[in-house]
Amino acid sequence: MNPDSGLTASLGAFAARPQDFPAAALQVAAAGVCDAIGTMFAGRKDAAFATLRKVLLPEGLAASSGEASVLLGPVRTRALDAAFLNGVATHALAMDDVAAGCHPSALLVPALLAEAETLGRSGRDLLQAYVVGYEVLAELASREPDALHGAGWHPSCMLGPPAVAAAVARLRGLDAQQCTAAIAAAASMTGGLVANFGTQTKAIQVARASSAGLLAARLAAEGLTASSDALERDPGLLKAISPQRRARLDGVFDPGELRIVTQGLSIKKYPVCYSTHRVVDAAADVARQPGFSAEGVQGVQVDIGSMQAWMARHHEVRTPFEAKYSVEFAAASGLVARDASFAQLSDDFIHAPLVQRLIAATTLRLHEEKSADDPVFSPWDRVVVTMKDGRVFDSGEVAYALGHARRPLDAQARRRKFLQCAEAGGFENGEVLLNKLENLQDLPDVRQLST
């Protein structure tokens, strides 16, 4: 690598460098791929997926001879469209994983899966490319000291396309110049707003980021040029979207110890906004305490970060979409069901009199202090419940949600989540596919996943 090159070129050189990543990195990547495919099946019945499918695959145009599969099924289409469709399904239920303030697997897996099917690449090739994409995403996120959400940007959509482009470029075996061009071109394909959280467009904008990264890599492979300092130029992408214009622009990328190993992935347990997961866990902890009964609750106080509450901004909940982005619903669901899963995102549960009463009885105490791990979050969340008889139940401070990289789900819990997602999406061969995914490193051709 040229020590005088900037960030964009050094990321391109990293993506092009032939290297085998360590087993620990591939293991995390494999967990991300498996989780993303599970959430993809769960989202196949979502209205956003159905809408996009009508546009991209109108009646009579669905084929069995396209480049890549839709939902690993018999319908095939262009890889760009497959990545778009599968990306929407993956993110539709807000149940895909989190790292570096983004949704790495919802970004990387749809594009890599589509391109790996097109090229006949192996499972190991896909995982190696995933690691590249994760590292690029984590590096870009690390250069911004302020929360992009605060400026209205959806970080996954602002930082995701360059990361996806790097991953696909690695999968295609592009050289350093082409990889740099792919990353730089993808910087011009970013875009996504927090304003669309709680709507179907949130899944669309994440999926569009995945497809855009794939497009940028393909264009670079055909000779497209782009500025070799598109990320770090003043102003380039990082400076342009930085809320306080404090993004770090200097210095090249030095991979050092891989962040995918040191930071890992947070596998989400619940299909609701991640900013509310600690609240669900805290409320569920209260519900398990001896003598607690949800029927006897007088009032609920939730301590939570102001940015988290801003993203989960629905105080009155009437629909599953609103429930996904509601702190009050998260508390009520945890207190009543000790969970916030598919069963709780139903009209019957949402409109149950007890649930609605608890939502109305919940007040928020907002905190401005930022977590050292993620500026979107406060250092901890907490649920304190006052009963009608005067007793008080306190969850204590919850710093990490179940499934967080520092509080991970075990292998059995991840398997259970995958199978529940497959069942929720009406996919009947969950066990068979899961067995293939658990041996993805040894799969000679990714297309075998869809057979």
TrEMBL record:
Q: What is the lineage of its organism?
A: Bacteria, Pseudomonadati, Pseudomonadota, Betaproteobacteria, Burkholderiales
Family membership:
Belongs to the PrpD family.
Record Gene3D superfamilies:
2-methylcitrate dehydratase PrpD (1.10.4100.10)
Q: Where does this protein come from, organism-wise?
A: Ramlibacter agri
InterPro entries in alphabetical order? MmgE/PrpD_sf, MmgE/PrpD_sf_1, MmgE/PrpD_sf_2, MmgE_PrpD, MmgE_PrpD_C, MmgE_PrpD_N
**Gene Ontology molecular function:** lyase activity
The MmgE/PrpD C-terminal domain covers: 270-424
Coiled-coil intervals, chain numbering: none
Name the chain's protein: MmgE/PrpD family protein
Q: Which residues form the MmgE/PrpD N-terminal domain?
A: 16-247
